Amino acid sequence: MKSLLLLSGLGLSAMLAELFNLKKFLFPLVCLGLLATIGVSIYDYNTDIHLFNNMLRLDNSALMFTGSMAFITLLWLIGAQDYIEKETSISDKYALILFTLVGAFVMVSYNNLTMLFIGLEILSMSLYVLAGSKKNDLLSNEAAIKYFLMGSFATGFLLFGIALIYGVTGSFHIDVIGEYCRANANNMPNMFLAAILLILVGMAFKASAAPFHFWAPDVYTGAPTLVTTYMVTVVKTAAVVSFMRLFYTSFGSVPYSWQVIVSIIAVLTMFIGNVTAVYQPKVKRLLAYSSVAHAGYLLVGLVALSNLSNGAIFYYTLAYSVASILAFHILFVLADSKNNDIDINAFNGLVKRNPLMAFGMTVAMFSLAGIPPIAGFFGKYYIFSAAIEAGRYKLVLLAVIASLISIYFYFKIVIAVYFKTTNEKTIKLSNSYKLLYAICIAILFAMAIAPQFFITIQQ
Amino acid sequence: MEQHTLAQTLYGIPLNAYIIVSAVLFSIGVMGVLYRRNLIIIFMCIELMLNAVNLLLAAFGAYRGDSNGQVFVFFIMAVAAAEVAVGLAILMMIYRNTKSSDIDTLTRLKW
After folding, report:
1. Which of A157, B38, B56, B103 is the most exposed place for a label (fewest CB within 10 A)?
2. CA atoms within 13 Å, Cβ hemisphere of A434
3. Which residues from chain B sit within 8 angstroms of residue A170, using beta carbons?
């Protein structure tokens, strides 16, 4: 409740700041508000709060995901401050970002399908605007319209599924639906199975899982780089977690069928994402495809569906988000004003131009690829071991093969950074970027030291 | 009196009829989104999908004697209105830049 009020209030005051000419206080205010949200999430830990007639339930999972998403937004803001304040309508952008966070908060803590729908729409609608925030850039326009059309199309499927579930069970509460499933596990009506399928389609669209991923690379490439960063971190986390919450509480006892479908989706997503990324010459698009593949790894955790896999998904999303923030912000600085797309060649000899950026990019790539001493490895390790515990050996085998493929293109960038030469001059970083890179690198190593802490914290 | 009979007639329609009608409406919407090339018509098809859902929810709510379904319909209508506002704004932005509302003009992003 407190974080909901805090975030919405912050969003509204960001819009009012335009009127009262307080724009220069906005950045510290928003940062303080986000810190307060993280604080509240930690303070409320282990209290199981039910809000609005049990429409929202703030259990540990919801609180920790809220905290981690607020933290990721904070990191994002440190790097994005220059970008936001350089252009017009500063307060709108702050407000839109905060409203997406409100939507994400509702999506990770809903207990009723009405709230899932509302949270999803709050999140998506602010993002449609953000994706098109470069009004005169045709690529940004195209990204916005594609995202809008695909987003509302997916919402239609999700809603039809919800309506059918309501028809069968007579309730929107996910607990009640879960009870219905346990009571009728052996003779599910066909309508209910169709509903699960429709909801799967809607959610797969939102989480950019194959075969519904085709909008993702286009939108991620066309949108302004920093908005893309936000989409592949916070938004993807929220989508996968809402997916997990619904399936964990409601459909866990529906026998078998949906798990096979999710497994197929996961395998397709991992392979399509990683194999297509191999052929991408442009770094932004490469990272976009890699983020599609990471949705696949998260779905492997979803198939396992146990307490361990929930913890593993928490750890994985945090590690993946921090590494993505690091990689995209380095890309943003390197690409400078050229919004769209620099080649991998632009990374040539980065270690001579700026060692901190080079080291940051290496750590980010190692983490995304899952090379041992860094957080990304443990994320994959826990997700895969949860899946093995659930007896999904073939799925894990395919996932390991997919992540071996991914090492190839992550290493292409690392090789360019260290072993190729260039004549470009050195890059000077502002202090906020140095701070951001240092924090991200530190977190990625710190998470690798104490993975068990993060796994158990959200149960 | 007349309204009473109308309500009775409506209750006489079996639930399956409502489910079939809304499934057909929904499919028309989906097909429209997939096949039409004009952005405004695509918007209208998405609205059609949402309205099929509304009909289904209202019918289920009425047959179960439960108001939850009908309240959900209000949420969908409110959100759909907001969504159209955002969508038309994006469409206007594109129209200013390309002087067209055909999605075939938007093919710069391709893999």
Report:
1. B38
2. 7
3. 64, 66
